[in-house]
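Objective 1b: paired records.
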Amino acid sequence: MSFQAAYAAPIIMMSQNRQADKDRLMAEHDFEINTKAEQEVKSIMEHLEQQDEVMIDILRRLEAQHEALLARGAINAQGRA
């Protein structure tokens, strides 16, 4: 029995070491992918924030134009009366 254990132990240890190396490489790969994904999400969020700022600026301009048109309409209505 001890000969069999002595013979099998190094093979089992090598197999476990190989699996541990594979697991470590997979963990490193997953970390790299997650890091890249996080950077991409940050980039997308920044882009969306810029779009929000542009949309708010457009809305403000439209509101200002609308108010100017309403003011002109009120002036024209007073002139006719």
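Objective 1b, second protein:
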Amino acid sequence: MTNNQRKRLFYLIRQAKLPEDARHALIHSFTHGRSESSHDLKEEEASDMIRYVGSLLEEENRAEKMRRKIISMAHEMGWKMERGRDGAIRRKADMKRINDWCQKYGYLHKSLNAYKYKELPALVHQFERMYLEFLKRV
């Protein structure tokens, strides 16, 4: 593995917040069981692993964008926390209410952050339908 590949790989691993055991398992997988150490990665294996970890990050970024869309719609419907625990006035989305809705009405009955990337489009669609009904009533 080249020095640039090593830098890029560890940068991506830090960004993905992969625990050490997961990192070793990935390396074990990409070396086809030959090693669990990044020092033993060949250039081609390192390139494949860089692409894979990069795709994980990209997927998580897209998932986060969908979660933010739901939070934004909830905020527009007035699902806001007016006061924080310290009594200060804040205008933040009421995450408890959003999570309660996702657990009660969401098609998988999980909290918002528990929905995986592939599950989120259906949840966004479901929340959009409720949001559009809200707009019709306003």
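The helical segments are 3-16, 20-30, 43-76, 95-105, 120-137. The mean pLDDT is 93.
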